[in-house]
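User: We ran a pulldown and think these components assemble together. Before we commit to crystallization trials, I'd like a predicted model of the whole complex to look at. Sequences follow.
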Amino acid sequence: MADVTTQHLDPHGVPSGAADASHAEGHGLAHGSTGLSNTKLAMWLFLGSECLLFGGLISTYLLYRGQTQGGPSHADVFDIPFTSVSSFVLLMSSLTMVLAVSSITRGDVRGSRLWLMTTALLGSTFIGGQVYEFTAFYREGLGFTSSLFSSAFYTLTGFHGVHVTVGIIMLLSLYGMSLKGKLGPERAEAVEIVGLYWHFVDIVWIVIFTLVYLLPA
Amino acid sequence: MSTSSAVRHDPLDEDKRAHPAHPGDLLYIKVAIVLAVLTAIEVATYFIDFRALFVPALIGLMLVKFFTVVWYFMHLKFDSRLFRRVFYAGLATAIAIYVATLTAFQFWTAGA
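Assistant: Here's a predicted model for the assembly, 329 residues in total across the polymer chains.
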């Protein structure tokens, strides 16, 4: 009986399995049976699960924001014009991040390096603003354990700040890799994945800015 | 005896799925301008009295900004449907769980 085997060939006549393996190796990323990057899928799964984390923190804040126990309330301490500028800075860092992804995809390594550093600097400005804000609130008598409101507020915004800080570390790592010549267009997806994380941090702040700072209790 | 038949498949289809085309820089800049304008309107609600429209307007602006970033900057509008499903599943689960929690704590009726 004849043994019939079917082999998929790419345009160069190379078996597609071998081509996929070398393609994935070149990107440093594995493509599974979905034809999609496993690393990118993992990042989307992670971001989906992060919605649950921040959802819990935001809900807790909403439940406790009126529980000031005689201490300062949000109306006493929040500086909306200052936080608005911080929000704008973080929003614009999403633009510079997407420009970094666009540059590396085009093969413009110098451009991507510039946008990565700009994004890291904008993120650092946001964190600097948060440190300033926390210090000002503390001086006005709003400590971490002052009230249920303060604990919920610092936990929520602090967790977000830690996420931004992790993002800055990832951006600076990519910048360092780029300086060493290890971040060419073949690794564009690594920049895109860090970009997804960065944009997620931005969308979480969009929600926090509205629900925590702008909406009245 | 062994017979081998070679089937050519279109590598473009697979590559398109793995690395979909992204919009150009000009679109990103336009999106950023829209986001900046929406943020300015949001901040304006703090200084100008929008009366009954205040809360719905803020929530609406927040949702528009949220999904604009997700669709354009995170490329979910152009990327694989699987990524969309994975992310929206997490988001929908979070919203369902926490709306139920807030309801259980009488957040909507009694206030916090």
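The CA atoms of residues 127 and 165 of chain A lie 7 Å apart. That may be worth checking against your pulldown data before setting up trials.

User: Thanks, that helps.
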